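One record is kept unedited as follows:
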Amino acid sequence: MFELSKQFRFEAAHTLHRVVDTEPSRRIHGHSYRAEVVIRGRPDPVTGMVLDLGLFERALAGTRDGLDHRLLDEVPDLGPATMENLAAWIWRRLADQLPGLARVVVHRDSTGDICTCFGMDAGSGVAA
């Protein structure tokens, strides 16, 4: 069994209703994010690859475009722009395109924040 991963970066703005840092969080502000997408599987006996990296890149490109330089408050089906919701949104966008999707990790490197999504509950679309 192998794991293959790719990363992409995106810049985005949002507002957030929080208990702490209430006023600054409610104002529009932005972050630099890094997402890591991991698939797990066995290499194809003919190609020797778990997944062609070109196909992996294509799948990520559309997802990145849906987030990069966007106001996250306006991204359909995201909900409040938390790291948890970002990881779940990326998962939902990629699950059908990437067999063996194992996890999605969202990083905010400037603050050291990391959130990992290991899958979605099939019935609800909520992180399992």
Observations:
- The chain has a mean pLDDT of 91.
- DSSP finds three helices and five strands in the chain.
- Residues 9 and 34 are 4 Å apart (CA to CA).
